[in-house]
Write a structure and sequence with these properties.
FAD/NAD(P)-binding domain, five-stranded parallel β-sheet, four-stranded parallel β-sheet, about 30% helix, globular, binds flavin-adenine dinucleotide
Length: about 375
């Protein structure tokens, strides 16, 4: 079988899509990658943009550069519909046919009233710069109230993202301490669940509580968030948290554009797949990364390293399907929670696999470990090693 005779289209230029594209190109497949932006935004290291520790472009990899290096075609366009039964996808400006489709478009966010009054590190990449501007204004003013929190999705807990909220909070605090301004700022942490962060395991949860208490951060947890305003957050029982800068991470939800597609979706709108990332009811469509409805233990979480595993597996499984043979790779045995949670001047290493979990404080060295990971990740994807 000549691998170049099959048209493989990947939609999404993040962890999952880029991994699949590089792996498929190693087997010389004809690969087209569609992305609505011309860069891969590396979210885990973007946490340093709001404090100015890295410029925006250091958190990106150019997709035209990756396309040239690895030999895939790049189409910068927006996916608007997937017609699985017709083997085509509709983009804003054209329709593409495929033999195999890998869907890697990440997730949308839960909707909240007044969300436009918040900043988020998990939304559109450029929003991280708007947050930097507001943080700089407060530093200039010499005082302020900062509220940081994250939300839930009752239909799918795997999309709740708390780690980056803590990273932003501790990076803000570290920056303010360096400027001798911390005592002029009030911090509040808010979340609707009674035990936010518990999913990463007992050790991490306990340690975070110690860290929040040590910094004197007010906690408003276990209360429903009812909306946001320019000067704060409404939570149930008519309580209002005043804030000059609200950083809020809504939980993930399935991409709205998939609602009109013929793909099978979970209640939360994510694409249903089997362990091999193959979409239920379709032999030639794979869904990888945050867009996929994860199967597995109750504490599972949508994370970058799982997106990488799924992207690689999809490439392997497509190759096997084309060349024949029954061997396939699955992602569920790789499910774990793994995070180096940066605090600006150090980090906490968090790991959970089943009932076992650890939190290891890594002063100073942890911060550098995360920085080195960022350089290493960019270099290895650029070189394809
Ligand atoms: C601030 C932050 C910190 C994080 N830290 C960690 C960490 O330390 N460790 C960890 O494991 N995970 C971390 N995560 C989670 C991790 O970043 C995600 O799980 C990962 O990005 C998912 O990869 P993905 O490829 O599925 O989706 P994404 O990275 O979201 O990529 C989706 C891609 O699809 C494109 N796209 C979207 N819609 C369309 C459309 N309609 N048409 C065309 N293209 C489209 C986007 O432009 C993008 O290229 C973090 C997340 C955030 C936000």
């Amino acid at each position: 079988m000549k691998t170049g005779t099959k048209q493989i289209v990947i939609v999404g230029g993040g962890f999952a899509g880029v991994e699949a594209a590089i792996a498929l190109r190693k087997n010389k497949y004809d690969v087209t990658l569609v992305s609505n932006r011309d860069y891969f935004f590396i979210y885990p290291i973007s946490i340093w943009i709001p404090t100015g520790k890295i410029p925006f472009d250091k958190s990106t990899l150019s997709l035209p550069m990756l396309a040239k290096r690895h030999g895939f075609k790049l189409v910068v366009d927006e996916l608007v519909n997937v017609k699985g039964n017709e083997q085509e996808i509709e983009l804003n400006t054209q329709t593409l046919k495929y033999d195999y489709l890998v869907l890697a478009i990440g997730a949308d966010k839960m909707k909240h009233k007044g969300i436009e009054h918040t900043f988020s590190i998990c939304g559109q990449p450029k929003k991280s710069l708007a947050m930097k501007t507001r943080f700089d204004e407060l530093i200039e003013k010499g005082e302020g109230k900062i509220a940081i929190g994250f939300g839930g999705n009752p239909k799918d807990k795997s999309g709740v993202r708390g780690g980056p909220a803590f990273e932003i909070m501790f990076n803000f605090i570290s920056t303010l301490k360096q400027k001798n301004l911390y005592d002029k700022f009030d911090f509040t942490f808010f979340a609707p669940m009674p035990e936010p962060g518990k999913r990463m395991g007992k050790s991490g949860y306990k340690m975070l509580d110690v860290m929040l208490n040590k910094e004197g951060i007010a906690k408003r947890v276990g209360k429903k968030i009812t909306g946001f305003d320019h000067n704060g957050i409404y939570i149930e029982n008519d309580t209002f948290i005043e804030s000059d800068l609200t950083m809020f991470i809504p939980a993930s939800a399935g991409p709205a554009i998939l609602q009109q597609s013929d793909l099978p979706l979970s209640d939360a709108g994510f694409v249903k797949t089997d362990d091999h990332s193959k979409v239920e009811g379709f032999d030639n469509i794979y869904a990888v990364g945050d867009v996929a409805a994860m199967n597995g233990p109750e504490w599972k979480a949508k994370q970058g390293h799982m997106a990488v595993v799924m992207g690689k597996n999809a490439a392997y499984n497509i190759d096997r399907a084309i060349k024949g043979g029954t061997k396939r790779k699955g992602y569920q045995k790789h499910i774990n929670i793994l995070c180096v949670m940066d605090t600006g001047n150090g980090a906490g290493f968090i790991y959970r696999k089943g009932p076992k979990d650890v939190f290891i404080p890594l002063p100073i060295v942890g911060h550098w470990m995360k920085k080195v990971w960022g350089w290493h990740y960019k270099l290895t994807r650029t070189l394809g090693i």
